[in-house]
Amino acid sequence: MDSVDILVVGSGPAGSVAARYAAESGASVMILERRPEVGVPVRCGEFMPSNEEIQSMFPRLTDMEALFDIPQELRCLETYGIDLIDPANKHTMLDFNGYTTDRDRFDKYLAGLAQEAGAEIRFNQAFQGIKDGLAQTSGGEIGYKVLIGADGPGSIVAQSVGLKRNRNPYPAVTAQVKGEFEPYTQMFFGGIAPGAYGWIIPKDGRANVGVGISPKFSEGDLRAYFNKFMERNGFKAETKIYGKYVPSEGPIPKTVSGNAMVVGDAAGQVISVNGGGIPLAMIAGRICGRVAAENVKGGSSLENYETQWRDIMEKPLRMAAFNKKLADTFAFRSDTTTKMCMSILGKRRMGNLIRCKRIFP
Known about the structure:
It is built from eight helices and 16 strands. The protein has 361 residues and is α/β, with parallel strands linked by helices. It has two domains: 2-74 and 102-167 and 248-320, FAD/NAD(P)-binding domain (3-Layer(bba) Sandwich); 78-98 and 168-247 and 332-354, D-Amino Acid Oxidase, subunit A, domain 2 (D-Amino Acid Oxidase, Chain A, domain 2). Strands 1, 2, 6, 7, 8, 9, 15 and 16 form an eight-stranded mixed sheet that branches. 49% of the residues are buried.
């Protein structure tokens, strides 16, 4: 039977960053990836905010330069704004710097850093649960001292250790289209269906196009809404259309249970108002990995992870979840209410909205 200090389930940004920092701190680390390859398939808008925007959203974050030192070759297109479009096709352009990436290459880069630090990755091996303190996997039992669940919004690790799952995740679908696009993200609210929103995120000679819905208000078929959005914009999908679920109600109540922790989407560490999660997964992943290694090496409490990530991210994420709830309550009921609410908010408040800040007063 295999045994390891720290077992990480999932090789996305949260899992790979956690594994890297745990290994750099001297722990033996294994990542389980149920698929044959890191980063595939891609189910993501692939947008990363600039370091300045991340710092603005999370002012308590320190030492971010090393964490977000991403090679230039992984940056497909530098972007300079977010264009918010209401049901009447009124545009509100917000200054917001960032870049788009290829998530398969991006995730492989982060996983490579974890391997360079000493972490092992096991492919085609799925985590199935816990029995007698051992991880049950499709490749046999694995002993561990600390278990880290970075296995997405439907986390099996969270279920196995009694942590709550994300409530009411939003379904979304996305695909790539070819074309030349201006260097800013477009977000469409209304005009597709009540509670549905669409996006066009530009890359180099292509763009990620997607639609997500609020199940409370959109009773139709998500794929039909996506087809409607594609047809309206004259797009043809050049890749397979992939679906995903996006946590929409902020962090789960607890992210530590016994000798296990959850991180990233599994912990609900996602910006509710726009579905952004890559930088949050990396921030929390670094904390998680370091705390796990400190526990293994010196016996310090895993609760330090809970304390540290919440100190940096909980207030902005709770504000984003609150703002999202306001939008659900007042804006998403119809195109008329969506248009009215976006008009009332105006440019300044919508800028605060996407940056996880208070919109009133």
